[in-house]
């Protein structure tokens, strides 16, 4: 159990990036307004969706070079918002150039209330699938390289595990994060409308129940986008699988309190970590 405060307020932000204008400026304007809404409701930790800044904004390799340093426009935006509102932000994903691969890393930064990047998770599972929707074929690995390191970071709100979108279908990653002490796991996403309708909330609740932890899914919500429809349905799930808050389609904010004492009591009553008969081995890098 972490030494974090036992009761905190967090928010999941749902966006429709690229819906009206395929520009960074428009996406950041939308994010800024939603951040202000969450802060007005008392949120201390905010989770943005995958691709929050660059959905629909063109060449990933060009964007990734721009975001290679902390002075990149999206990374600087996160720092400025964190400092201005004295909040922690999980910054969805931002394409960042790497030294080991010509493709970008889908990088999820955790920014503290001083504007400092205290952790970065690079998305491990890439979405290379066929979906029965307007787009049909998704090949994320054409633009992105696989990450290989699970990340858990100490925060004032508990031990925070980082995952992104398609990771949600791989329970061994979540079990590993739980083994490392994660009490809260975030899932910034751009889950498609087709797969999201079928599985999004089901998987969020399963990951919460399996690991007796809070799970926060911050998704893109634009179900009728002509090229890449996303499901929305952002939700905050407690360790017993209860839905603390959820959204439908379109931009919005949900806020909920997390109670680490409640989590601790559940784990004492149902000690699944002690009862396990098989272990999860850390992926090799």
Describe the structure.
The protein is α/β, with parallel strands linked by helices. It has one domain (8-273): Carbon-nitrogen hydrolase (Nitrilase/N-carbamoyl-D-aminoacid amidohydrolase). Helix content is 28%, strand content 28%. It is built from seven helices and 18 strands. It has helices at 24-40, 60-66, 73-85, 171-179, 193-211, 260-269, 272-275; strands at residues 7-14, 45-47, 88-90, 94-97, 104-111, 117-122, 128-130, 137-139, 144-145, 151-155, 158-162, 184-189, 214-219, 221-222, 230-231, 235-237, 243-246, 252-259. The strands form four sheets. Strands 1, 2, 3, 4, 5, 6, 9 and 18 form an eight-stranded mixed sheet that branches. It has a six-stranded mixed sheet with strand order 10-11-12-13-16-17, covered by helices on one side. The model has no long low-confidence stretch (mean pLDDT 95).
């Amino acid at each position: 159990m972490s030494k974090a405060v036992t009761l905190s307020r967090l928010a999941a932000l749902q966006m429709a990036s690229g819906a009206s204008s395929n520009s960074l400026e428009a996406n950041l304007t939308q994010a800024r307004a939603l951040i202000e809404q969450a802060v007005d409701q008392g949120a201390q930790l905010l989770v943005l969706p995958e691709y929050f800044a660059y959905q629909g904004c063109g060449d990933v390799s060009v964007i990734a070079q721009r975001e290679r340093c902390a002075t990149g426009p999206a990374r600087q935006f996160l720092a400025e918002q964190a400092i201005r509102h004295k909040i922690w932000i999980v910054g969805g994903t931002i394409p960042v150039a790497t030294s080991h691969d010509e493709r970008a890393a889908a990088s999820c930064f955790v920014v503290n209330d001083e504007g400092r990047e205290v952790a970065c998770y690079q998305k491990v599972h890439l979405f290379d699938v066929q979906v029965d929707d307007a787009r049909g074929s998704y090949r994320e690995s054409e633009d992105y390289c696989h990450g290989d390191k699970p990340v858990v970071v100490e925060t004032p709100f508990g031990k925070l595990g980082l995952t992104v979108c398609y990771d949600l279908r791989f329970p061994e990653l979540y079990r590993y994060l739980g083994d490392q002490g994660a009490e809260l796991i975030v899932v910034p996403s751009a889950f498609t409308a087709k797969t999201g309708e079928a599985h999004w909330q089901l998987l969020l609740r399963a990951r919460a129940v399996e690991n007796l932890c809070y799970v926060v899914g911050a998704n893109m919500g634009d179900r009728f986008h002509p090229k890449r429809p996303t499901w929305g349905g952002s939700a905050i799930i407690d360790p017993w699988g209860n839905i603390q808050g959820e959204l439908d389609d379109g931009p919005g904010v949900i806020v909920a309190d997390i109670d680490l004492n409640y989590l601790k009591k559940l784990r004492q009553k149902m000690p699944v970590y002690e009862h396990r008969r098989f272990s999860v081995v850390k992926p090799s890098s």
